């Protein structure tokens, strides 16, 4: 057993886990944060996507001990001050889910993806790698979101939701900063 | 611990009927915030974790199990094998008189036998304090086998297929005239062989169970498509009364047929909890899902069509071979659509089966029609090419007025209208018929069409509706929500039936303590619940009217039910101006409070033994009567454009239009999503999905999402889904289920488009690029 201090959604959590425990299992089984989903436990489906310091990762392929003191944001932490994240609202309006099981991962992945795009990262479908200000076409969104599977086939709605938000909202990508006391999430 | 899912609307809606409107899902907030709890997500103090050990042979006997190393892993509570497992009752014999006998995934009494029946059968379950300890220990269990010869190669067994026997629900074959002779005599004909591989559902939520015993009372959290089956089956296997078992299933993380039966993981989690006296959770690994949950059978199909020179079909022959496991599974109605789609003068359809030493096959989205339409609709396209006819024109020349095989009436059939609208939306007229004639740079462009077809069903459902003195309504029915938007649709129906605002309705579902719902299968749930819900609302209105008409103070005094309608949150006389005119009627709160009632409730169906029997008899008689009178189905026209890289053979689906005849649509938003989801799964079936079985060992070789390729974002273009919204007069509210018809015809449309793009016919799914080079 090792003691790990995780910063999750603005709160600091200390837990004793075996070094082999994945970040996903630490969230779900140790912290009761079951919003992050397990779909394959081998990095193939994206259901477990969370943000680590604002970057999207597959939490099933991450060990909890590796992420000590990193800022982890899960689906439970993407709303601010009781206001849903614009993507949450847009997913509902665009019917960007059916069963809901991949949704947490899609949401976190979309937040991370918009930040990557905002930072100028190209994708496999970007025509000219030297371009600055790559246009976020639907083809770009689809390519960049392809690590998140949806078996219900809500892809059109997900792309529509991301499109709506990308077109209207400045993207919030910075991680939630934690205070060094265990308390209510701080913003 | 309560798990009953309650949904009530939070968004204000405008006045007027709500059925048909694109209302947002009621469970949108829990599903987008992570608050929705799926079956592995219920906290229990002292919970233990279970993991399975799978057999590595297809058939034989266990000669020894060494559990010493596994038991020595820190945190392991027990390793349960056939040597130490408590006895369970065996699964019941399948009987058509008791449909819940179909619940068992297999006929094997897991861990109560040393016999191995398929490669992957659970032979031990490890229970431990932590998930990691359970999984580590499961990997340390050593099993010795005496292997017996096994039959696992579908292709090799195909010649030994036997005709499927018919029963009350399914017919294995049918004929009209002499199709063989007509085919031989036809001036134009095709006689083709198609194959489709096994498929797996791959719901993103792996099967998971949380089980807790309290004495002889059992609580099970289980993502299922059939709560009553799970409850009854567990009660039977563990020898406790049914009422001692509670099944909680408010959210199901995708199912597509894969969570219809009770599979080994469920039973062994309950067993592990029984043995350890602890609450136990087991989420199958993705591989575990492939090893212990059945999938779609592979198929081979012969599809022959004969026509006269004008393209009128004289012969239609469709035969199929599919597999069942020796331990279970059922026939796949591969020829279903071929009995209904074309007005051929002579028809022969016959389904055949082989029995293998493999896990049972099971239902997967549109079992039968999804793969059957691939063969039929590809063959029609090939015949059109032989005739030099436009493939839509060929279909229209053979569109029947009555059911081709027996002359029954169609309850509803708007296939012509579907094609007309689809062709216009898609721009079919721009297609140049010759293969390889359309090109966009390096891409060969192809356009294809195919018909969609899926029978419509209705099952018994028990529903109660409660109206409170504050004018709010609670609908209670143990139905299932696995992504269809089930509660939202029923809330819309109740709101209109009782004339209350959508926001005033709350729906409770997903729990065996509620009145029994129908299984979520056969695209039947919405219609089944709607039927009972509407009846319950009628009863409720009568009860409320009875309260009012007794009162001298009520404007409804002496009114009969047929003179009164529900609107504006109360009962008002028909034919009078709309509104709250106090002389014409009164609100529910007024009626209930005057009568001193806090609530009025109405129920349809009953969960007593007698009630259940009555329900089943009523269902069977209606089912048989309906079948004598009508052919009921959803249908549609699928249009697609593909682009094929001229050098690499890479295939991209670039456009899609689907127009569906699904009767009246309850929720424009969720129904479109379901139809679209069907198309997406069909694209996977057409281009990438294939479960690979080692023909020597019967072991699945690609049990995971990295090797079994379901469509990803980049594979899916905008899918334009339309429906004709014309009510089917034989269905409740005129609605026809939309869950499955969307996948049918998809693979056919893609195969036809690929042919148009490249000139190559691929008759073996999936259509991968190697088959085009």
From TrEMBL, chain A:
InterPro entries: 2Fe-2S-bd, 2Fe-2S-bd_dom_sf, 2Fe-2S_ferredoxin-like_sf, 2Fe-2S_ferredoxin-type, 2Fe2S_fd_BS, Aldehyde_Oxdr_Iron-Sulfur, Beta-grasp_dom_sf
Domain 2Fe-2S ferredoxin-type residue range list: 2-78
Keywords of this entry: Iron, Metal-binding, Oxidoreductase
Coiled coil: none
Highest taxon listed in the record's lineage: Bacteria
Pfam families documented for this protein: Fer2, Fer2_2
Designated name of the protein: 2Fe-2S iron-sulfur cluster binding domain-containing protein
Organism taxonomic ancestry: Bacteria, Bacillati, Actinomycetota, Actinomycetes, Streptosporangiales
UniProtKB/TrEMBL annotation, chain B:
Domain Aldehyde oxidase/xanthine dehydrogenase a/b hammerhead stretches: 33-149
Species per Swiss-Prot/TrEMBL record: Actinomadura alba
Keywords carried by this UniProt record: Molybdenum, Oxidoreductase
Pfam family, one: MoCoBD_2
Polar residues composition bias: residue spans: 1-11
Record's keyword annotation contains Oxidoreductase: yes
Protein name: Xanthine dehydrogenase family protein molybdopterin-binding subunit
Classification via InterPro entries: Ald_Oxase/Xan_DH_a/b (IPR000674), Ald_Oxase/Xan_DH_a/b_sf (IPR036856), Ald_Oxase/xanthine_DH-like (IPR016208), AldOxase/xan_DH_MoCoBD1 (IPR008274), AldOxase/xan_DH_MoCoBD2 (IPR046867), AldOxase/xan_DH_Mopterin-bd_sf (IPR037165)
Gene3D superfamilies per record: Aldehyde oxidase/xanthine dehydrogenase, a/b hammerhead (3.90.1170.50), Aldehyde oxidase/xanthine dehydrogenase, molybdopterin binding domain (3.30.365.10)
SMART domains assigned: Ald_Xan_dh_C
Residue segments, region Disordered: 1-35
């Amino acid at each position: 057993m090792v003691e790990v201090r995780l910063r999750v959604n603005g709160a600091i959590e200390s837990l004793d886990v075996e070094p082999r425990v994945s970040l996903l299992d630490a969230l779900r089984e140790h912290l009761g944060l079951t919003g992050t989903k397990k779909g394959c436990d081998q990095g193939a489906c994206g259901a477990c996507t969370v943000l680590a310091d604002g970057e999207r990762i597959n939490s099933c392929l991450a060990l909890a001990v590796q992420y000590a003191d990193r800022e982890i944001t899960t689906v439970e932490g993407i709303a601010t001050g009781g206001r849903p994240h614009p993507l949450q609202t847009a997913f509902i309006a665009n019917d960007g889910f059916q069963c809901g099981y991949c949704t947490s991962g899609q949401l976190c992945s979309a937040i991370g993806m918009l930040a990557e795009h905002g930072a100028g990262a190209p994708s496999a479908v970007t025509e000219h790698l030297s371009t600055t200000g790559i246009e976020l076409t639907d083809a770009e969104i689809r390519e960049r979101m392809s690590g998140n599977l949806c078996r219900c086939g809500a892809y059109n709605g997900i792309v529509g939701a991301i499109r709506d938000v990308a077109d209207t909202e400045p993207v919030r990508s910075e991680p939630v900063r934690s205070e060094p006391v265990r308390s209510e999430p701080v913003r | 611990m309560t798990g009953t899912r309650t949904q009530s609307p939070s968004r204000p809606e405008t006045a007027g009927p709500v059925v048909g409107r694109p209302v947002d899902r009621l469970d949108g907030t829990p599903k987008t915030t992570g608050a929705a709890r799926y079956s592995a997500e219920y906290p229990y103090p002292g919970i233990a974790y279970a993991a399975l050990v799978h057999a590595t042979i297809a058939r034989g006997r266990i000669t020894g199990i060494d559990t010493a190393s596994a038991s020595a892993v820190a945190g392991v509570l027990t390793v349960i094998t056939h040597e130490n497992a408590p006895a369970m009752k065996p699964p019941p014999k399948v009987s058509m008189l008791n449909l819940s006998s179909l619940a068992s995934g297999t006929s094997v009494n897991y861990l109560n036998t040393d016999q191995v029946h398929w490669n992957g059968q659970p032979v031990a379950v490890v229970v431990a304090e932590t998930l990691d300890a359970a999984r580590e220990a499961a990997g340390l269990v050593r099993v010795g086998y005496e292997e017996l010869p096994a039959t696992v190669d579908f292709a090799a067994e195909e010649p030994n297929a036997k005709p499927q026997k018919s029963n009350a629900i399914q017919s294995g074959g049918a004929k009209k005239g002499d199709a063989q002779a007509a085919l031989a005599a036809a001036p134009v004909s095709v006689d083709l062989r198609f194959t489709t591989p096994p498929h797996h559902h791959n719901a993103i939520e792996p099967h998971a169970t949380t089980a807790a015993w309290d004495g002889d009372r059992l609580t099970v959290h289980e993502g299922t498509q059939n709560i009553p089956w799970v409850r009854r089956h567990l009660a039977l296997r563990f020898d406790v009364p049914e009422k001692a078992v509670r099944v909680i299933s408010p959210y199901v993380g995708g199912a597509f047929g894969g969570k219809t039966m009770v599979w080994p993981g469920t039973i062994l989690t309950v067993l592990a909890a029984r043995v350890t006296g602890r609450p136990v959770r087991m989420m199958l690994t993705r591989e575990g899902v492939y090893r212990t949950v059945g999938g779609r059978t592979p198929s081979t199909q012969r599809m022959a069509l004969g026509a006269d020179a004008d393209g009128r079909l004289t012969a239609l022959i469709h035969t199929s071979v599919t597999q069942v496991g020796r331990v279970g599974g059922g026939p796949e109605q591969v020829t279903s659509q071929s009995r209904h789609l074309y007005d051929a003068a002579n028809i022969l359809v016959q389904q055949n089966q082989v029995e293998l030493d493999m896990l049972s096959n099971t239902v997967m989205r549109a079992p039968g029609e999804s793969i059957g339409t691939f063969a039929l609709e590809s063959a029609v396209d090939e015949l059109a090419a032989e005739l030099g006819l436009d493939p839509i024109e060929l279909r229209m020349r053979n569109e029947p007025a009555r059911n081709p095989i027996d002359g029954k009436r169609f309850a509803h059939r708007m296939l012509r209208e579907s094609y007309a609208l689809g062709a216009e939306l898609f721009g079919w007229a721009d297609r140049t018929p010759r293969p390889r004639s359309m090109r966009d740079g390096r891409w060969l462009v192809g356009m294809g069409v195919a018909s969609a077809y899926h029978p419509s069903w209705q099952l018994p459902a028990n529903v109660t509706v409660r109206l409170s003195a504050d004018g709010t309504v609670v609908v209670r029915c143990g139905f299932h929500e696995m992504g269809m938007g089930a509660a939202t649709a029923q809330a819309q129906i109740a709101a209109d039936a009782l004339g209350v605002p959508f926001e005033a309705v709350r729906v409770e579902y997903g729990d065996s303590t509620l009145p029994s719902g129908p299984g979520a299968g056969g695209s039947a749930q919405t219609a089944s619940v709607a039927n009972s819900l509407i009846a319950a609302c009628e009863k409720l209105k009568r009860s409320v009217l009875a309260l009012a008409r007794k009162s001298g103070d009520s404007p409804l005094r002496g009114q009969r039910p047929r003179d009164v309608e529900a609107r504006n949150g109360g009962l008002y006389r028909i034919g009078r101006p709309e509104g709250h005119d106090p002389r014409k009627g009164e609100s529910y709160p007024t009626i209930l409070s005057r009568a001193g009632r806090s609530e009025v409730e109405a129920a349809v169906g009953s969960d007593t033994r007698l009630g259940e029997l009555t329900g089943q008899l009523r269902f069977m008689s209606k089912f048989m009567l309906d079948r004598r009178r009508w052919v009921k189905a959803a249908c549609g026209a699928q249009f697609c454009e593909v682009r094929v890289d001229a050098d690499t053979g890479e295939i991209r689906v670039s456009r899609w239009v689907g127009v569906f005849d699904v009767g009246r649509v309850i929720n424009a938003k969720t129904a479109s999503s379901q139809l679209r989801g069907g198309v997406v799964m069909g694209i996977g079936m057409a281009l990438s999905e294939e479960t690979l079985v080692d023909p020597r060992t019967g072991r699945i070789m690609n049990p995971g999402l990295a090797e079994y390729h379901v469509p990803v974002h980049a594979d899916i273009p905008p899918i334009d889904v339309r429906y004709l919204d014309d009510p089917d007069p034989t269905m409740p509210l005129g609605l026809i289920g939309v869950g499955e018809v969307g996948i049918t015809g998809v693979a056919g449309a893609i195969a036809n488009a690929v042919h148009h793009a490249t000139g190559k016919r691929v008759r073996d799914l999936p259509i991968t690029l190697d088959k085009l080079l």
